[in-house]
Amino acid sequence: MRVLVIEDDPRMAGLLDQGLREEGFQVTLARDGNDGFSIARHGDFEVIVLDVMLPGIDGFEVARRLRLAGRKTPVLLLTARDSLADIVKGLDLGADDYLTKPFAFEELLARVRAAARRGPQTQSVLMQLGTLSVDSASRDVRVAGELVALTRTEYSILTLLLRRAGQVVPREVFLEEVWGIDREVESNTLDAFMRLLRSKVDTDTEKRIIHTVRGVGYVLRQGEAC
Fold it and tell me: Are residues 21 and 83 in the same domain?
């Protein structure tokens, strides 16, 4: 399950990142409201854990803008402000749940799982490039209409490339978003997974779509002969 955590406090962000990863979640971190909104709007997440007090735009505004943009990803607000007025405001702006600090991590886990179960079952983002398509709701990956089975790591790498199609994705971005900033992962691990991914979704030797940018990273680009 992919979870976006938007939290500016380094200690809290680190605790949430570590705890959620230990429970098997794929975690993406954002440290301010503007970046969090951008990532949430264009990313593919089952749940967004959103702090209220953020630099840039606050959590209430992030939630409001996401709903205006048509994003229905469940949002769990975190805040030390526990007044009834704040709770009502957050829910009215589109948040699905509200948890006040300090909280027990077990309760956070329960609420994240509950939010993921609740929705949005009908929300689907279809990402395509040429004959390659990924349905974010079903997680189906198809090449020329044929279903392709990917591992969880391969799927994460592919969707990261698709979200940034045409842009070079640096190696460090893969390592952070797929494995986590605190995980010790060898750089050649990424190369190994990329070879496996190419063998499944990039088999047209005449027109490759996954390209290596030596010394930098990888880019997904259509229609280039090798």
Answer: yes
